Amino acid sequence: MSAAADEVSRAIAALFSAHGEAFQAINVQVVALNDRFVALLNSSVARYASAEAVSDQLLAAINGPAQAWLGRPLIGDGANGATVDGVGTNGGDGGLLWGNGGRGGDSTAPGAMGGRGGAGGWLWGNGGRGGNGGPGEVVITGGVPVSASSAGTGGYGGSALLFGNGGAGGDGGPTVVIEDGVAHIDPLVGYEGRGGNAGAILGTGGAAGGGYHIPGVNRSGRNGLLGPLPA
Question: Where are the extended beta strands (E) located within the chain?
Answer without folding.
Answer: 83-84, 87-88, 136-141, 144-149, 175-179, 182-186
